What does this fold into?
Amino acid sequence: MVRPYKVTGQKRKKKEKYDREEEYEQLDDNDIPQSPKKAKTEGLEGSELDKEKAEQVIDEMPRIPIVPTDMFKKSRDIFILERASLEISKVGKSYQLLSSDEHANYLMKNKRKPAEHCFSGLFEAIQTILDSRVNKSGRLKASYVRTQQGILFQIKPHARMPRTYKRFSGLMVQLLQKLHITAAGKGEKLLRVIKNPVTQYLPINSRKIGFSHSSEKLVDMYDYVSTVDNGMDLVFVVGAMAHGKIDKDYVEDYLLISEFPMSAAYCISIITTAVELQWKIL
Ligand SMILES: C[S@@+](CC[C@H](N)C(=O)[O-])C[C@H]1O[C@@H](n2cnc3c(N)ncnc32)[C@H](O)[C@@H]1O
It folds into this structure.
């Protein structure tokens, strides 16, 4: 698999084509990806013509209307993952991301609780946000992560994250040391540490919704999303820690979206599904 990030001292191998990377090229934060242009029909022969006819038939079939992505210029979504357990320390000769799996002895020797050092919840939460149709359709404006130590970083919607814990861990060490991760060949900062507080990056016309298993406001997420004013950006604040709860002043409403305690990733998938249903993003 191709490394999406610059690694000093290594030449990049043949560039694999990633549809999303291509789609987002040339776009900045405020731009919305458009659907790919239809191929021209002139000069087509044989099987190409059959394909063209088949496409016409499919075009004429009844279907569920899809909301044009232009609509999203009115409202977009932001995720904030609070209290993420991301701490680096020099273990032996190198800096490493502390985890209960690999550094239990080190953590106990340093009078730290191993159970509080687990980044799998954050890893899965980020993947769920970036893999969602909310993101692929262009509705995701940004994602922010705030660590237990108060370090805040931004993840661009079109960043592709490593799929293994090991590489994710390496990327986080690099981010916390260099303060940014740059896209290979483009110089664009896909992840970067930014100044607190996170509220300065939130649109004025936005609703800040927190999620907590200790909230008493049990809602059906789809019903809730459908009542929010159309033109408002939605800011979803989810805990990325293993234990404890989020308690932030900027949150306007704390919701309980299931009677059961869930992982951050599962909670995010309920949120994104509700948004996707509301906007008919298929
Ligand atoms: C692994 S939990 C954090 C652990 C913490 N004991 C808790 O239940 O809040 C990850 C996050 O998912 C969200 N979450 C989990 N279950 C939820 C629920 N039933 N309703 C709303 N949010 C929930 C919260 O934001 C929580 O901080």
